[in-house]
Each structure stands twice: as structure tokens, then as C-alpha cells.
Amino acid sequence: MKPSPFTYRRATSVADAIVLLAVAPDETAAIAGGQSLGPLLNLRMTTAGTLIDLAAISELRESRDLGDAVFIGAGVTHAEIEDGKVPDPSHGFMRRAAAKIAYRAIRCHGTIGGSVAMADPAADWPCILLALNATARIAGPQGERRLAMDDLLVAAYETNLAAGEIILGFEIPKLDDTARAASSKINRKTGAFADSLAVAVRQGARSRVTLGAASIRARILPQTSAALAQGESLEALRPLVASDVAALLAAPDPYLQNLHATNVMRTLAEVLGA
Ligand SMILES: Cc1cc2nc3c(=O)[nH]c(=O)nc-3n(C[C@H](O)[C@H](O)[C@H](O)COP(=O)(O)OP(=O)(O)OC[C@H]3O[C@@H](n4cnc5c(N)ncnc54)[C@H](O)[C@@H]3O)c2cc1C
Q1: Does 36 contact ligand 1 (Cβ within 6 A)?
Q2: What is the residue with the minimal CA distance to atom 10 of ligand 1?
């Protein structure tokens, strides 16, 4: 199928994009890599009167070392992260995780900002950035603001971005030298979205474990994260994982319970070196 007709505008700067998006915010959509929005438009699962292309905005492609954190621009592609073309706050973890997203052709176009703005509950970056305790920098007609990932994600395909706002990028705290981070993705075939996506970051009191594809959005596993922070063993974590996963599922389901709990235990085994 082909999309409904739309007007195409290529923004040249963040300020330009915000002006263009403000003309008719409810009928206008930003497009970055087009890897999610393109198929949705083609299948007519969504429509847009005007598409504002963000791909030529150099500000969105910038990344920099901030000292304690790294800023990665929203327009940076999955492949650029995989290839180490941006500063890495995570001792290589983000590079390895990026390589597990979709296929290389999609990774060459799809962007970290588009992935988070899309808010697919099974997508990789929302779950990873939540585990890394990232903060999104956002710009809109009212100026700039910052939102922690936990506050940005709302539900399936829903974020706290207001109409006319765009994500500028993400500030990601650097992991310290003792930290370990891992992700485990269960999917039916290479390149498919996750049936279960678990991410664990072990870093003392800042330890965090997140789970995607289990509910309407990526979530922090609270009991598991707290126990990991306290240095509990893998076996001590097992019942807490089971309890956290059960709390996320919409209804009791032994298959999904086992799938997600097993997946979380895999990431925990990796970060604990067990
Ligand atoms: C076959 C296939 C397999 C895939 N597998 C995976 C996978 O395993 N894991 C995974 O995580 N993803 C997967 N994806 C999705 C892919 O990673 C997309 O690139 C990503 O979800 C969207 O990024 P994009 O830059 O292409 O965004 P677009 O498709 O251009 O836009 C997506 C949404 O984000 C909005 N948007 C884009 N940029 C911004 C911004 N800076 N600020 C505000 N809003 C913005 C758009 O308005 C739109 O609503 C897959 C896609 C396909 C087609």
C-alpha cells in the first residue's frame, strides 16, 4: 500500500523544526529514520497531513562527552552507536546492544530518538536508556525541558512529549569502572522485535534492572533492582524476579512468566559473573 498524500518539509535546524511543527501540530508528524513511521504510513495505520523531516538537522546528530555523562543526539542512528562513532558511557554495552536491533539496513537509518519517541513496548532503546538512568532533553514552542526516561515513557506508543515537541537527545550517566551491564533479548528470529527484553546494570546503589515487551512500556523491576544494589546473590534474586515479573503481567500467564523471568535471570547471571 501507499500512504495517504502528505506535504513534505525538510527542517534545517531545531528552531526551524519547532516552527514547522507548530503550524498544525495535530496534523503534522516529525520523521527521522522513517523505519517505524514509514511502514505505519504505508499501511495507513496512521496519517499525517505534513511530515517534517528531521534528518538534515546537524544539531540532532551531535554527541559529546559531558564529564560525568555523555550526550547522544536524537538523530544518531543505531548503526553509529554500534560502530562506536559516538562517545560511549557504558564500557561498550550500548554498542553491543545496538547490534541486536533489527537488521543492519534498519540500523543505518533508525535513530535513538525515533525509537524512544515511538515508544514501542518491545523496543530496545527505551528499556536500555531506562536501565542506564538517562534523561531526555526536549525542545518545543515553550523552550527546552528535561525528562527522566521513567517520566517520558507512558504506555504503548505513548510518551509525555507534547504536540510540537521534539527530543534533542539523551544525557546518559557514565558507568563507573566497576559497573557491569548486559541485555538479553528473546525473539523469534534475528531482526524481529523482542518477545522479552531484559537489561541489567550492576553499579552499587545505582543498580537497575529493566524489562521490555512484558507490559505497556519498559519498566524498572523494583525489588530486583534494590536487591542487586545490595549485592544479593543470583539465587537470592530469583524469587524477587518472579515477583516483579508477575506484577508486570496484565494477567497470570505461566508461559510469559517463565519467559520473562528466565530472560531476566540470564542478564543477572551475566552482570554477576555467575
Ligand atoms: C523490520 C523492523 C524490525 C525492527 N526491529 C526492531 C528491534 O528489534 N528493536 C527496536 O528497538 N526497534 C526495531 N525496529 C524499529 C527501528 O529501530 C526504528 O528505527 C525506530 O523504532 C524508529 O526510529 P526512526 O528514526 O526510524 O523513527 P521514525 O520512524 O522516523 O519515527 C518514529 C516516531 O518517532 C517520532 N520521532 C522521530 N524522531 C523524533 C524526535 N527527535 N523527537 C520526537 N519525535 C521523534 C516520529 O514522529 C514518529 O512518531 C524495527 C523496525 C523494522 C522496520
Answers
A1: yes
A2: 123
Query: Ligand 1 pocket test: which of 27, 111, 147, 152 has the largest number of ligand atoms within 8 Å of its C-beta?
Result: 111
Residues 63, 86 contacting (CB under 8 angstroms): yes
Distance CA 50, CA 228 (A): 47
116 Cβ neighbours under 8 A, 6+ residues apart: 74, 123, 125, 126, 129, 136, 149, 152, 153, 159, 167, 170
Task: Report the predicted TM-score, pTM, of the whole model to 2 decimal places.
Answer: 0.97
Domains in the chain with CATH codes: 7-53 (3.30.43.10), 61-173 (3.30.465.10), 180-272 (3.30.390.50)
pLDDT in tens, 131-189: 999 999 999 999 999 999 999 999 999 999 999 999 999 999 999 999 999 999 999 99
Q: Measuring from atom 50 of ligand 1, which residue has the nearest CA?
A: 102
Residue for grid cell 517463565:
258
The three cell numbers locating residue 88: 560511549
CA of 33 to the centre of ligand 1 (A): 7
Distance 198 CA to ligand 1 centre (A): 19
- Closest residue to atom 6 of ligand 1, CA basis: 102
Which residue matches cell numbers 534492572?
Answer: 209
7-10 sheet: strands from edge to edge:
7-10, 50-53, 28-31
